[in-house]
Design brief:
Layout (H helix, E strand, L loop, with lengths): L6 H15 L6 H8 L13 H23 L4 H20 L6 H8 L3 H22 L3 H19 L7 H13 L9
Helix pairs in contact: 1-2, 1-5, 3-4, 3-6, 4-8, 5-6, 5-7, 6-7
Length: about 180
């Protein structure tokens, strides 16, 4: 089993640990135990815990570009609907540790000022990029803030995460309603 483990296996287990227990839960020994291997196996893929934590943060920082590539070209409204569907998928996948979790990263940022700076910078970039690619101006920022609220509430009350498809439909309707914008709020 140890020889079969890949870097992605360690990252997946680390994503789950970060989501379920915060940054303090991302410990080589704990991850190895959860994977059923010795911690020596870890060092084939990472030089240490700091490299693993950096990899977790970096993949989250780069996630929006990957998401936008998956959305592809087309009219802004079609791209927005594709974004919402993709976020629904990714919310589910983050629960399985297959993709980064916004909830886990934001929780980490709340206890580490250096991480908070990087997260804040990445969020500003995300909003700018989403506005440029998808249009909707202030509506995208409103959607992003709703997403953050959903993520925060889902971390405290996991059962609410099942409501994301319903919440996403409401946001799509709201954002496609003519006349709804920052001046109208």
């Amino acid at each position: 089993m140890e020889g079969d483990l890949k870097r992605e296996d360690w990252l997946r287990q680390a994503r789950l640990a970060l989501l379920r227990g915060g940054v303090e839960a991302v410990r080589v020994e704990k991850l190895a135990r959860a994977l059923g291997v010795t911690k020596g196996s870890f060092y084939w893929h990472f030089t240490g815990r700091e490299e693993l934590l950096e990899a977790l943060l970096r993949e989250w920082e780069n996630e929006v570009r990957e998401i936008l590539q998956q959305i592809g070209p087309g009219p802004a409204e079609r791209r927005f609907r594709a974004l919402v569907r993709l976020l629904e998928q990714r919310a589910r996948l983050s629960e399985e540790g297959k993709v980064p979790s916004d909830a886990a990263i934001f929780a980490w940022a709340s206890v580490d000022p250096a991480i908070a700076l990087r997260v804040n910078r990445a969020e500003e970039g995300r909003i700018r990029l989403l506005k440029r690619i998808l249009g909707h101006g202030d509506r995208i920022e409103l959607f992003y803030l709703v997403w953050l609220g959903f993520v925060a509430r889902g971390q405290r009350v996991p059962a609410t995460r099942k409501r994301f498809p319903e919440i996403a439909r409401m946001m799509r309707r709201l954002l496609s309603t003519p006349g709804i914008g920052s001046a109208d709020l």
